[in-house]
């Protein structure tokens, strides 16, 4: 018999034996498609739209199912009820750090995530997280952003770079207590590397890698700072870039936001966080932008900290957990016509801002994004400052703008577009 055939048969037998052991004995994993030897179910996942693949599989196997991304099982949670039950109701059990190949390799597995998270939150608070000092820094950067946009002289431009510089400089002001000029060569090189990192994260998933735990070291601190830049820059800048594209696509929404800015803030002072409570429509627009773009469709991977029984299924300790945030943010029962951009999803019948438990762009539970407060502040201050100073003009008919993301791997990446910032 051909040696290759023998090898394939042997591997298939080993895989089937492994599956049988996992699905019997102490309990069984949730159902899922039959994996192939070595590669598992990777061929059933579209790397350009992982979230859609998970949605299609959930229609067959239900809200809790098992995938093999390689040789190890990964449990997928789809829909608000399953995500809430795991991350909130059983938050401690599901709070482990799942395998995430690219960041794991970059960080070399340094530091326990709980200690690192606690340290980063404490440090950010000491630097002014949630206090006036952070707001002042964002306001200063918003003014610098406006000056950079004025330099475009109303000409069409790709806003990617400029919108990336602003949140990056906020992190610089927190970490280094200074900002960089938008033309500084070191800053330009750093921004380029951040953009490349997001592209890598949005590419197809790699084979898995163990995440060894090590001591809290200087190198771990360096990686923590790197995480702050990565998470605190690209996520906010991408949301801003996507948000401006949606405002170009829906000029009637832009007009309403600018009317609210004129009414509450006026033209002669900078927006501040105190204004937000008096601007329900703007708040609804910001929430709808984050809901609609679904920036991190499958969340960061979690893991169970111990053997656990979940909905009559057995999930072994260390199993990676994927939670579909798309299934929550685009739930048609909570958000009618979820594929439509509509700020009314967050407004009541009286035009007041309406909260929703389904709003999870920052995840939820024990592992909710540590920079949520900073991101919310930046999005509000940057967007209102831009719209206070500029009218937005598209170089094509707004109806012809395609807002479909070019990639929906780890992050939803908006298509490139041109925009004109016309001074008010």
Automatic annotation (TrEMBL):
Mode of membrane association: Peripheral membrane protein
Position of the signal peptide: 1-27
A Pfam family the protein falls into: p450
UniProt keywords, alphabetically: Endoplasmic reticulum, Heme, Iron, Membrane, Metal-binding, Microsome, Monooxygenase, Oxidoreductase, Signal
InterPro entries, sorted: Cyt_P450, Cyt_P450_CS, Cyt_P450_E_grp-I, Cyt_P450_sf, Cytochrome_P450_fam2
Predominant location: endoplasmic reticulum
UniProt-listed GO biological process terms: organic acid metabolic process; xenobiotic metabolic process
SUPFAM superfamilies: Cytochrome P450 (SSF48264)
Keyword Endoplasmic reticulum recorded: yes
UniProt-annotated binding residues for heme: 369
EC class (word): oxidoreductase
Assigned EC number: 1.14.14.1
Family label: Belongs to the cytochrome P450 family.
Name this polypeptide is given: unspecific monooxygenase
């Amino acid at each position: 018999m051909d040696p290759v055939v023998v090898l394939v048969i042997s591997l298939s037998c080993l895989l089937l034996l492994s599956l049988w052991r996992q699905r019997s004995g102490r309990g069984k994993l949730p159902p899922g498609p039959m994996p192939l030897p070595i590669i598992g179910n990777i061929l059933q996942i579209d790397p350009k739209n992982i979230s859609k693949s998970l949605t299609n599989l959930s229609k067959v196997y239900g809200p809790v199912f098992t995938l093999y991304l390689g040789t190890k099982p990964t449990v997928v949670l789809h829909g608000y009820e399953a995500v809430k039950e795991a991350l909130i109701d059983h938050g401690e059990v599901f709070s482990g750090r799942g395998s995430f190949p690219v960041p794991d390799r970059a960080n070399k597995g340094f530091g326990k995530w709980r200690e690192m998270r606690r340290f980063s939150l404490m440090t950010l608070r000491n630097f002014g997280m949630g206090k006036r000092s952070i707001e002042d820094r964002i306001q200063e950067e918003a003014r610098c952003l406006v000056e950079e946009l004025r330099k475009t002289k109303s000409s069409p431009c790709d806003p990617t770079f400029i919108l990336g510089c602003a949140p990056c400089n906020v992190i610089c002001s927190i970490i280094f207590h200074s900002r960089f000029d938008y033309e500084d060569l070191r800053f330009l090189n750093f921004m380029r590397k951040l953009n490349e990192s997001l592209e890598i994260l949005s590419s197809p998933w790699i084979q898995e890698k163990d995440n060894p735990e090590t001591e809290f070291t200087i190198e771990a601190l360096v990686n923590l700072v790197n995480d702050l830049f990565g998470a605190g820059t690209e996520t906010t800048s991408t949301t801003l870039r996507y948000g401006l594209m949606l405002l170009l696509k829906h000029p009637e929404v832009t007009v309403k936001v600018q009317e609210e800015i004129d009414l509450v803030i006026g033209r002669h002072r900078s927006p501040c966080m105190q204004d937000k409570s008096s601007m329900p429509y703007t708040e609804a627009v910001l929430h709808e932008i984050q809901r609609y773009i679904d920036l991190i469709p499958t969340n960061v991977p979690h893991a169970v900290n111990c053997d656990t029984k979940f909905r009559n299924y057995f999930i072994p300790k260390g199993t990676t957990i994927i939670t579909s945030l798309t299934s929550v943010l685009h739930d048609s029962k909570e958000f009618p016509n979820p594929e439509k951009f509509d700020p009314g999803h967050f407004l009541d019948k009286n035009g007041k801002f309406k909260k929703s438990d389904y709003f999870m762009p920052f995840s939820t539970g024990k592992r909710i994004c540590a920079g949520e407060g900073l991101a919310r502040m930046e999005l509000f201050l940057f967007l209102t400052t831009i719209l206070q100073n500029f009218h937005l003009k598209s170089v094509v008919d707004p109806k012809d703008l395609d807002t479909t993301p070019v990639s929906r791997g780890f992050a939803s990446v908006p298509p490139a577009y041109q925009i004109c910032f016309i001074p008010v």
